[in-house]
Write a structure and sequence with these properties.
Elements (H helix, E strand, L loop, with lengths): L1 H5 L3 H11 L7 H7 L5 H22 L6 H28 L6 H7 L5 H16 L32 H42 L1 H8 L12 H47 L29 H9 L6 H18 L2 H19 L2 H18 L5 H12 L25 H9 L4 E6 L17 E7 L8 E2 L6 E3 L6 E4 L5 E7 L5 E5 L8 H14 L7 E7 L14 H10 L3 E9 L2 E8 L20 H5 L5
Parallel strand pairs: 1-2, 1-7, 2-3, 4-6, 7-8
Antiparallel strand pairs: 5-6, 8-10, 9-10
Helix pairs in contact: 2-4, 4-7, 5-6, 5-7, 5-8, 5-9, 7-8, 7-10, 8-9, 8-10, 10-11, 10-12, 14-15
Length: 622
Amino acid sequence: DAETVSRPGAVREALSRRQAAPMVGDGAANAEVSGSGRTSGERDRADAETVSGTVGTAERSISADVPPGLWQFARKKLREAYFHAARASVRDLELNPRPPRDEDRLAADPPDPEPGVLRALSAIRDLAREPGLAYDASPSADDDDETREEPGVPSKKKTADGVEAMKTTERTNAKRRRKATRASTVCAWFDASTKAAARLARADWRAATALLLEDDASFRAAEDETAEDETSSRSRRAVLAHLERAAESERRAKWRTETITGRHSDLRRRAGQPEADSRKSFFGAPDEEKSDVFVKDKSDVAERAWRSATGVSADSKDAAHALAYAEAAEETGRKPWVTEALRWCHDFAVYFLQGGGAAELAVKAERRRFFEAFGKRMTDAEITATRDKFLNGHLGMDGDPGLVPFARRGAPRVLSGEEKEKELSNKPRAHLLDVGSCWDYFRAFTSDSNSAYEVVALDLEPRTPNVFKCDFLELNIGDESSAMKTEKTNAATTFLSSYPANRASVVVMSLVLSYLPDPSMRGEMVRRARKVLLDDGRGVLLIVTPHSTDRSYSNANRTNALAIWKENIESLGFERAAYERMRSVHCVAFRTVGRGPGVDVGCRAPELPIAFDAKEREKPPA
């Protein structure tokens, strides 16, 4: 290494090689610089120290089995994965409020992973050469000195005999094929292994640090051969453990995908199966036969398919599938693309409740109506007066009834300053009803006494004790003066049996509507959400649904499902207040409009179709 660095321009060339890979693709070089608080001079000195110890190693690591281009590509991928995982760890701390851990502090200022990257690549290359892993490296009888000839040229000892010359040519060609197979197999194994290692490192900051940074000082090169052997052995063990975790992670991801998509497809297919013409349709029953409980007609196909998914049916196979789905849904719910959407819901709820959002959205609606009525815009003074009216009235936290109603409040009355302060101190907090909560994401934001809301989480198969077991389609919605009722069956499960109307300030449905097998059932979920939400602009419905709802990931196959959703949801007494397209999901906010539990749509809720409804209900070919 010292000789390498002492050559003229060696350090400069090595620095160029080191910086070339991070400048491509993921922008890891920028992440490396932005994540570090070091000055430019400190970084330059650190770079020189790193290169002085790794340039020679890097040059020695590339062999004929692994072409330099493949080596540099794998190096770039590992570095990109490392810095991406660091940024994702910092972002995860922002999305999930929790005490910071040691790895979080390390992610905020990630050290250079170059020594660990070279060790990992060297270990993967050595593993690729091992017999039984990537190829058969056992010696062959044809690999002796007698067959070391030019390709296709027979041996001089056997040129007199044409048959022997042909056999010699065949042996030479066979040797060439074995060498080519060995090289291609080593390259293929090396390429596949480095990609698998990079995928896991990208998804898991702990795995990235364990592979590339763990006990880095103990790996520093020593001159004696025993220390080098020990370093190589430890690197190989670390890489093998990492690759085993990567394989298990990919198997788990495949299981999650098959469990979730298979369950969705099965429910939608079963919900659309034809029945006898004489069966009684739930949606066609007279209003007087209806109760507030949605599920009533046991012969309804969609209803029976849904009951199979709840885990309470007599079919043990369906119950097992429901439990497996809940487990897969929890793991998916902790993915960054889901937690980012849930954080959007939290931020919008705080804005709506404590940031004056309810009043601002009402002002926006008033300005729109004013322009439609008079053909001109409101003046600034008129806008300010309208905003103050809402903030001091029913869209203010201190208003009457306000964003959060008092329990069993009587007629409005004038209170003195002390009486008002005392009464406000006893005022309940806003309710955030998390339908399909699974792992209770929003609970982490309620530890502070000044938090914007109180969480009421419910799910078909709760994964945490704080989540109530409940089917929202069967939840009894009482009158406004009633109280929430729960029934505790055992230490781990509590049923939510009743919830009052006109009580919740926020209802969240994250990746819930797309799970329901029938468009009318999705509409019924929204209709019931309107009943439990506070009316007259004091409640907001937050919906998170995947891009597969309308196939918005493909311009060629995109549908107008979301436009239908907007029209039908607004027919229930809502007004769309916000929309944001995020990674893999749509996030939509609807504020309540009008007094009472929404528009009376009779016994049938409007349909909310998704792109895959028709596809799943097609009859399989005979």
